[in-house]
Amino acid sequence: MMYRVIIAEDEPLARQALIAAIQWEDHGMTIVAEATNGQEAWDAYRELNPDLIITDIRMPVVNGLELIERIRKHDRSTKIVVLSCLDEFDRVRKAFTLGISDYISKLTMTTDEMQHLLSRISQEMSLVPEVKKRPADSLEQLQVKENLLKDFMFRSRFTVQEFLLFAGDMGWRIHHTSPILLCLIEIDDYSKLLERYKDDYGLLTKMSVLNVLDELLNECAVGEVIYDNHNRYIVVFSSRRQQGDEQFHDELRDALERIRFAFADYFDATLSIGVSEVYTGYVNLRVMYRESRSALRRKFVLGAARTIGAQDDSEDELSREAERAFTEMMNGWHMAHPQLEQQLKASVHEFLRRNEWEQGPVIDFFQLLLQMPIHVLKLSREYAWDHFQHYSSRLRQANSLREACETFTEYTHRTLQLREVSPVWSREVMEAIRYMEREYREEVTLNKLSAHVKLSSNYLGAMFKKETGFSPIEYLIQYRIVKAKELIAETDHRTYEIAEQVGISDYSYFSRMFKKMVGVSPSEYRKMHRYNDRWSEADDEDQA
Q1: Fewer CB under 10 Å: which end of the chain, C or N?
Q2: Contact 174, 238 (CB under 8 A)
Q3: Under a CB-based contact definition with an 8 Å cutoff, are residues 56 and 8 in contact?
Q4: Which string of b and e fits 90-129 if b means at least 16 CB within 10 Å?
Q5: What phi-psi label fits residue 503: left (phi over 0), alpha (psi between -120 and 50 degrees) or beta?
Q6: CA–CA dist 145, 158 (Å, integer)
Q7: How far apart are CA 224 and CA 167, in angstroms?
Q8: CA 195, 200, 206 angle in degrees (round to 5)?
Q9: pLDDT of 264 above 80
């Protein structure tokens, strides 16, 4: 069954652009009516009983707010999304109090934003009987709180005064004049939790976690919770009364103990928690988020299932712990191939100088290291590929630096054993690989490669494919994408500039190949590694 959608927008071009930009069927939706004013939308609502209404606020005859009021007198279940302009603050605020599902700015709306919003609403509607363990309007409130806080913290769409008005309307349990502290709560081994509950989309898990956290905060502390990203939740605490930081931290410890116990009991899960410094006033929420995120990033080096404060473990101490883990890994190497051990250690020492201890850059580094034994030992991809893929997958799932180090050490030992039964690459193939890895920024063709190694194009192509499992061009593209990942994670260059820097002039092609090989778009990959560090939206060119 398709979900029925009504679009209410008095501007024909805006309405048609919205309709044409979205593949509605992909979200299980179909547009059953278009309305040019609130009265037409109201008549269509009564006749067609839609599941979702997307409405402008400022319309003739009957405006959007009047339309929402009429609908809410009849039911609370119809999803309503408001299209607004930035100068309509009072109207948007009123719409929230009437129980809308979401809102989006007409002037800044992108297709990706609409796709994401509709995907979420479609999932919510498909799971209505399961997620409604609390009243529907309460579930809507949780989503509204999330939108408001994220728009205030990350997008600066409201002033502090405007946000205070919203918070008052929503009945937030935060005393903004009291000490305030922000925690980021991250569920460890999140994929196992999703697998246990057979929750492919994560929506049921999200709502269950929000329910538990919201009830615990209501019982044991003054605070609010919203969903942040993937396996992470934002909890804002305020003190019950004016008091010193020490008493506030005592309250916080009690609350976090109860939360940890509840997650162990309900979900059989552990938590890693990053805690900000104590501030006064909502104006500091963005700084507090950044401090908590920075603290939480240290868990990959320091270990999971712990609470890490913003001032805990200085960068020097973090670097020492990381260096200790890498040093222990290298001390455990007793390789029968001195050249391989020497090159691996040189790469590790070079990485240590970069002081990048977040999970993304560390795992990316190990992924690059995985290729070195195959290259140095000249192993045939036909024999080594499954072995490589197995350990690549294990490294991506590593929850700590020490686990990654242990996994890689095991990989090197197994690879040396594999060498005894695996054919080696020919001199010509090795020379072609060295040429591509040296000249990847330039135009590299099969003819240039074959001339460089003094073989015919057809013969080199067949030999390369047999020995490595890839054609020369496939290998070159993979190498270029690896280098692009490094630049995206480590620089501020635009992704179209990075595409040119790695030798791919067609950005559209680069973006497609990146998503095919990495699983996410270039801008999504940058967000994964630098989430909210610069408080910016996705790169504009990724909308192309």
Answers
A1: N
A2: yes
A3: yes
A4: ebbbbbbeebbbbbbbbeebeeeebeebbebbbbbbeeee
A5: left
A6: 14
A7: 11
A8: 90
A9: yes
Q: Are β-strands 102-105 and 307-309 bridged in parallel, bridged antiparallel, or unpaired?
A: unpaired
Q: How far apart are CA 201 and CA 120, in angstroms?
A: 9
Q: Is the dihedral of CA 303, 307, 310, 312 positive or negative?
A: negative
Task: Show the tokens assigned to 368.
Answer: 């690059």
CB atoms within 10 A of CB 14: 15
- CA dist list (Å): 11 to 8, 24, 69, 345, 406: 9, 20, 22, 64, 61
Torsion angle of the four alpha carbons 239, 243, 249, 255, in this order, in degrees rounded to the nearest 10: -30
d(CA 89, CA 85): 8
Instruction: Give the percent of the chain with pLDDT over 70.
Output: 90
Q: Average pLDDT of 333-356? A: 87
Residue 339: Cβ within 10 Å count: 10
SS3 533: coil
Joined tokens for residue 385? 């590929």
Distance separating alpha carbons of residues 50 and 54, to the nearest angstrom: 11
One-letter identity of residue 384: A
Number of residues written out for the chain: 544
Q: CA 416 to CA 72: how far, in whole Å?
A: 68
* DSSP designation for 276: -
Q: Are 150 and 104 in contact (CB under 8 A)?
A: no
Distance CA 115, CA 123 (A): 12
| In the block, residue with structure tokens 């890693």 | 272
pLDDT mean across residues, the chain: 83
User: Residues 151-184: pLDDT tens digits?
Assistant: 888 877 778 888 888 777 777 778 777 888 899 9
Pick the closest to residue 79 from 117, 26, 37 (CA basis): 117
Look at 383 and 329; give whichever has higher pLDDT. Answer: 329
How far apart CA 402 and CA 399 sit, in angstroms, is: 9
The pair of structure tokens assigned to 336 is 């029968």
The pTM of the full predicted model, rounded to 2 decimals, is: 0.60
pLDDT digits (tens, 9 = 90+) for 509-521: 999 999 888 878 8
Q: Dihedral (C-alpha) 487, 490, 492, 494: value to the nearest 10 degrees? A: 20
| Cβ neighbour number for residue 317 with a 10 Å cutoff | 13
pLDDT of residue 534: 36
Q: Which residue carries 């179209």 as its tokens?
A: 496
The model's pLDDT over 408-460, given as tens digits with 9 standing for 90+, comes to 999 998 888 877 766 667 888 888 988 998 999 999 999 999 999 999 999 99
